[in-house]
Structures are given as structure tokens and as C-alpha cells.
Amino acid sequence: MHREQAPTPDPLTPLPRIAAFLHVVRILLGYGRHLADTIGHRAAAPGFAAIAACFGTANLTLIVARLHRGLLRAAALERVLLAGAAGGRDLSPTLLPWCPRRVLNQQVGREPGAIGRPAQETECAAPHAPTRAPYSAGSCPDAATTHARALTHSLGPDDPANFHTPTLEQLEAQVRRRPLGRTIVDICLDLAVVPGLCTGAFWNDLFDVARCHGGSIARLVQERWHREQAFSREQETHPTPGQNNWSNQGRAAIRQVLGFFIGEDPVAPAAAATGPP
Description:
The chain is an all-alpha fold. It has one domain. The chain contains 11 helices and no strands.
């Protein structure tokens, strides 16, 4: 007599926070890999400036370098999360007043054996108001963060040679010694993920896991502004043909350029026109 095979239980079912975090990380990985694979075709298409502005440059060498580093960061984070899941350890969110109940899961205090360092151990408290600079005078970033931030701001569109990409092992070690939300923010910076490129549902999920695990959304917003300004200056001196009016792109135009929003299945770019028919 034939018996139906019982469905394989999801090993992450008892670990709701780590499952939610992995969901966000894997969407970012899928998007980053897709963009890295298609960036050459997309760069030749009209409207590419809407994507390039999120990187702060139209320099493909620098964009590809940032994508590669973001993918390594995401892979390192995935490895840490899977290692924690294998040991049956769920995440312990930073208990902050803005964390939604579905993220906190109505549990108070740091659980024994939970993975992910609490924000108060390694960085200053996140600002309540978005007007406050995420790293103002008197803040306490560690030396590695200070170096990485200085490197990011010193890079110009014509200076990709100075771009630094740590190894996967170095990034995994970094993930383990600081709040996981900071790594999510760094991944978003490397992959140039901004709210306008995401579905509303995915951005809400990303926002929650970042802020409730020690990440600074204010830093992400501030860096986006810096990159738009840098891209505007670059276009004034080295304009990219066919990329006018990049700053006026709405969501309809973004969908036309990208083909999808992050959180949806990626769509391959349309073939770029090579000349008059």
C-alpha cells in the first residue's frame, strides 16, 4: 500500500528571527548576483543613471568592485546565520522602542546562546531622530569601521584602484564580532540598495531586521545623499550619454529601467540598442 511521504520539516521553524533574517539576506544575495551578471548590459541601456546614482558613480569598475564586496559580505552573513541555526540558536534582537512586536516576538532580555552581539556592546545607541548624524563627534565607531567609512568617502569615480575588498574569512570574522544589523547596512551600501528600488514589503522587512539588530538606517540614508551628490558632480564633468534627468526618476521609471523591484523575481534587462535600425 502506497503511503504519502511526510513533508520534510523546516529546520528553521523554531528559529523565527533567524529565518526572517535569512530571508532578507538571500533576497539581497539574489539581487546582487543578478545585477553583477547583467551590469554590462544595463549600463548600455537608457536610464541606467537611475541605478548608477545609487552607487555614486557610473564607473563600471568601481560598481562591480562594490557589488563583489557586497556579495562576499552577504555570503559571510549567511554562513554565520546558518552556523547559528545548526546549533539551534536564534537571534537576539536589540531591545529598542521602535522594534515591532513581530520582530521582538514578545521576548524580553538576551537569550542564552543567542547569536549576534547586542548593539550596546559595540556601538553607540542609534539615533531616535533621522536629523541627527549617525556618527557625530563623540560617537564610538571602532577602528575598522572608521577606516572603512573614510575609504568609502575618499573614493572618487576615477580612483577604483584604492578600493579594498576583504576576504570571505575576514568578513565572516567581522560579522561575528559586531551587531548583525550593521552588516546588513554595509551590504545595502555595497549593493546600492535604497527604498526606491525595493518593494514596500521587502523594505519594511529589511528596515526591521537592520534597526532591531544594531544597524543604522540613518547612515544608509546619509550615504545615499552623499552618493547622489557625487554622481551629480561626476555627470557635470563627465556626462554619460543618454542618461539625462536621472534625478527625476519615479517608481514607474525605476521599474522600466530595472525591470523589477528588489523583493520580486529579478528580470533580465532588455537588449540595448546598438544603433539606428
